[in-house]
Amino acid sequence: MVLTGVTSKAIRKGGAELPLAPGTFRVYNMRFCPWAERAMLYVSAKGIEAEVINLNVTDKPEWYFSKHYQGKAPAVEHDGKVVIESGFIPEYLDDAFPESRILPSDPYEKIQQKLLTDRLTAVAHAVPSLFAIMRDKSLKDEKQVKVFEVLKMAEDLLTDDFYAGSKPGYPDYLTFPFFEKIWWATGLDGVVDLPTDGFPGVEKYPKLTKWFEEMIKSDVVQAVTQSREHGAEFMNAYATHGELNYDLGL
Prior knowledge:
- By secondary structure, this protein is of the alpha/beta class.
- It has 8 helices and 5 strands.
- It has helices spanning 34-46, 89-96, 107-135, 140-157, 170-185, 206-216, 219-222, 228-239; strands at residues 3-4, 26-29, 50-54, 75-78, 81-84.
- The protein has a 5-stranded mixed sheet with strand order 1-3-2-4-5, with helices on one face.
């Protein structure tokens, strides 16, 4: 697995589009975006040799709108084709690179994993509650309840070592980024009553705690993730409408 450009600085408005060599697979990424991280994790898990272009999605380069009509990340470019949206990219990658398929080929099992992933999007919907607390700490008691509820749901849905079974798969890679964002928030004072070490807490969420530990230390995740400290700093700036440093930590 070779991912180049993971730590490259973000291209912004006025920045030139880098030439794409024939046969090169490219990922357009935003380092702190959980939706973009879904695509990055899937590329990493499949072992695709890829060039990563990091973007400033506040001050977007003009040429990028020819790749994504809204200028959002992620997008992937391969053999002259551009595919957008984190919900579609993984399935495209499995079809384009079937030798490293992650989703099951069996139609029934494939649908079951996609349905499970859909249920786990509740974790993504809990992240805005953390943003609300970052803006107004008096909302903590009210808003963090939503986070605890989705973590309990996720704990109950985890019936094996991983959501895909005995090893990580489609639901694990597509939902991990949102658990990670909750973990990042634990490093900020007064945001959520969850432990940073041993997240989200073995007493209430024993299966989820083991799952998160295995995921965060895996080579697939380590190849693309950001540090918790930098992630928390970026999250807080985003939530409080501060200046966003897309090159934080580089």
